[in-house]
Amino acid sequence: MDSELRANLQAAAQVLYHALYREPKLDFLRTLQGAGAARSWPDYAQNATQKQALVQLERALSQPTEALLAQLKPDFAALFIGPGPLKAIPWGSPYLHEKRLLCGPSTQALMQWYRHHGIEVNSDSNEPLDHIGLLLSVIALLVSDPGKDPVLTELLRDHLLPWSGRMLSLMQTQAQTDYYQAIAGLTQALLDTLSNALAITTPEVRLYA
Known about the structure:
Elements: H1 3-21, H2 26-34, H3 37-40, H4 48-61, H5 65-81, H6 93-96, H7 105-117, H8 132-143, H9 149-174, H10 178-197
C-alpha cells in the first residue's frame, strides 16, 4: 500500500468508527454534511459496493440535519443497542460462540492479543472490546505505519474478518435508512481493500448469528 492509500484508509476508518460506535449526533452529521462527505469520501475501492454506498450516503446527507437525526436514532437503536433483539449485533463473540454469548472465548483472545501488542482500547462503558467500531479505531491506528502490517494482518485475519461480513450484511439488509446502509457498504469496501492489499485469506468458521 502506498502512503496515499494508507492515508485514505485511515481517514475512512476513523469516520466509520464514529458512525458505528457512537450514537448519531447533530454535530457529527453536520460535519459530514459540511465536508460533502459523499463526494469527498477517501477513494480506496472504486467498486460497486463503494459506489452504491456513496449514492446512499449523499441521499441521506442531503436531508435537513434534524430530520435526518430523527430517522437515525431509532435505526441505530434497532441495529445495535436495543431494546429487543439486535438486528446487527456489533460484537464479534455472538457470531463465533454457539450460545451467542458476549465476552466469549473470541473476545478473551482479542483482549490477550491487545495486551501482547501493547494496544490500549478505550470503550465508553466497559463493554466488550470486539465491537466493530472499536476494531475500526485500531485499524485507523495501525494502517498508517507499514511496519505494523503484520499486526494489522493478524487483527483482520484472526479477530475481525471471520465475522464482519455477516454483521455488515445484516446491517445492510436490516437498516431502515440510507445512512446506515451506506455505512455498512463503505465499511465492507474498506475491509475488502485491506484484505486484498495485505493478501489475507479469511478463515472459514461457523457462524451462529
